[in-house]
Amino acid sequence: DLQGEIEAHTDIYHNLDENGQKVLRSLEGSDDAALLQRRLDNMNFKWSELRKKSLNIRSHLEASSDQWKRLHLSLQELLVWLQLKDDELSQQAPIGGDFPAVQKQNDVHRAFKRELKTKEPVIMSTLETVRIFLTEQPLEGLEKLYQEPRELPPEERAQNVTRLLRKQAEEVNTEWEKLNLHSADWQRKIDEALERLQELQEATDELDLKLRQAEVIKGSWQPVGDLLIDSLQDHLEKVK
Q1: What is the pLDDT of residue 231?
Q2: Which residues form a coiled coil (predicted)?
Q3: I need a labelling partner for 73 at 20 to 30 A (CA). Which of 20, 58, 129, 203 fits?
Q4: Cα angle at 130 between 127 and 131, to 5 degrees?
Q5: pLDDT in tens, the chain (240 residues)
Q6: How many angstroms separate the CA atoms of 172 and 93, rounded?
Q7: What residues contact residue 226 under an 8 Å CB cut-off, 6+ apart?
Q8: Is the peptide bond before 154 cis (omega within 30 degrees of 0)?
Q9: Which residues contact 69 (CB under 8 A, 6 or more apart)?
């Protein structure tokens, strides 16, 4: 709107300047000429400053708009990524039924955690950038960044931009914390399962050893028919 107003007055400005120069030539050397010259110089200076300020404001708003759009899209992409990762984590359940299966789940989840660790700097950097942007961006700049129906006053449009970015940032932070808690809980279940399965494996190995020893002893028994009657009681006790 401001630039439109400036453009609408451009012809008036040039006409004033041209007419002023003509008058100056006719008044050359007089006190009125000096006064007119100062007024023309002042008008030209203010006109130039007005145009420069208008262009600077436009450049600043366009840069802010581009940054707002980038932040908005970045937050959206992070929310989609976080949802996909949470779904992926949920699909890793339930716990497997034997040691090799759970060990494989552990390997898969460790790779998953490395992926979270790699993404963490991106998420933290984006959230910090949003925080700084909202802190430094004045309301009169924000109101230009978000298209709302014209019935809304500028302040409310600016507040909508602020609320949207802040809401998205809070959602990203919340979903990130939930995902990390979900991951930690799943790792705890895997660790507990591996520990119990390891204990079971050790107990099974010990039982297998004892069974083999028992089979060796059993294999050393003589046929009952070859035993002496006087030694039957002794062999009976050993069997017991």
Answers
A1: 78
A2: 183-217
A3: 58
A4: 85
A5: 777 777 777 777 777 877 777 787 777 777 777 888 888 888 888 877 777 776 666 655 555 556 778 888 889 999 999 999 999 999 998 988 888 898 999 999 999 999 999 889 999 988 998 888 888 765 444 444 444 444 544 444 445 677 888 899 999 999 999 999 999 999 999 999 988 988 888 899 999 999 999 998 888 888 887 778 887 888 888 888
A6: 24
A7: none
A8: no
A9: none
Tokens of 228: 């002496």
Alpha-carbon distance 240 to 233, whole Å?
Answer: 11
Report, in angstroms and rounded to the nearest whole number, the Rg of the chain calculated over CA atoms.
Answer: 42
Distance CA 15, CA 21 (A): 10
pLDDT of residue 56: 63
Question: Among residues 93, 69, 84, 68, which one has the least CA distance to residue 175?
Answer: 84
Cβ atoms of residues 92 and 186 within 8 Å: yes
Residue 21 is predicted with a pLDDT of: 77
Short-list 26, 6, 130, CA closest to 78? 130
Find out whether 83 and 175 touch, Cβ atoms under 8 Å.
yes
Rounded Cα distance, 33 and 43, in Å: 15
Q: Are 173 and 127 in contact (CB under 8 A)?
A: yes
Judge whether 106 and 194 are in contact, CB under 8 Å: yes
Q: Which tokens sit at 171?
A: 């959602």
Token pair of 140 as six digits: 């009169």
Using CB atoms within 10 A of its CB, is residue 148 exposed (0-12), middle (13-18) or buried (19+)? middle
Distance, CA of 88 to chain centre: 17
